[in-house]
Design a protein that fits this description.
single chain; 148 residues; 6 strands; binds guanosine-5'-triphosphate; binds magnesium ion
Length: 148
């Protein structure tokens, strides 16, 4: 599997998606530091919420084949900057999370728009609780070349 780097706001579902992808039991634990979970680099939401920390991840991305920008569909706020994806020198894929909680189609479309504005492409819709959308995401990630 490709080495992924997860980025997104606090509680958007990064660690839970890592757990799902690694076949682990889903159990809530706040991420306190940048950490390796199998083939994924899991990051704390503070890194996108806090401008001063954001820079740290541009270095970390060097170790990743692909960067994932995650946006919770129940969260109207977004901390990605327009065009931010260009900073990492890696493909940046968008992931709208928690589709099982979506109040309606508009919230899903809004989340997708935010990710596209940040430069993530393509955008997938997933739920780590139901597994919806994750096979399509995994297939796409498998099809990408490894970073050199
Ligand atoms: N309903 C639902 N809840 C989810 C889903 N994914 C994550 N959650 C819940 O959302 C909360 C936060 O999930 P985490 O995966 O820990 O979030 P995170 O992005 O790693 O957050 P930080 O480590 O704080 O940056 C937890 O209570 C999860 O159980 C999902 O697909 N559906
Ligand atoms: Mg986490």
């Amino acid at each position: 599997m490709k080495k992924l780097m997860m980025m997104g706001r606090i509680a958007c579902g990064k660690t839970t998606l890592c757990q799902y992808l690694m076949g682990q039991e889903l159990s809530y634990r706040k991420t306190q530091t940048v950490q390796l979970m199998g083939d994924a680099i899991d990051t704390p939401g503070e890194y996108v919420e806090n401008r001063a920390l954001m820079r740290g991840l541009t270095v970390t991305a060097v170790d990743a084949d692909v960067v994932l920008f995650l946006q919770d569909c129940t969260d109207p706020e977004c901390r990605f900057s327009p065009g931010q994806a260009a900073m990492y020198g890696r493909p940046v894929v968008g992931v709208v999370t928690k589709t099982d909680l979506a109040p309606g189609p508009k919230s899903l479309e809004d989340a997708k728009d935010l990710l596209e504005m940040a430069g993530a492409s393509p955008v997938f819709f997933i739920s780590s609780y139901t597994g919806e959308g994750i096979p399509a995401l995994v297939d796409y990630l498998d099809s990408l070349p490894e970073a050199t």
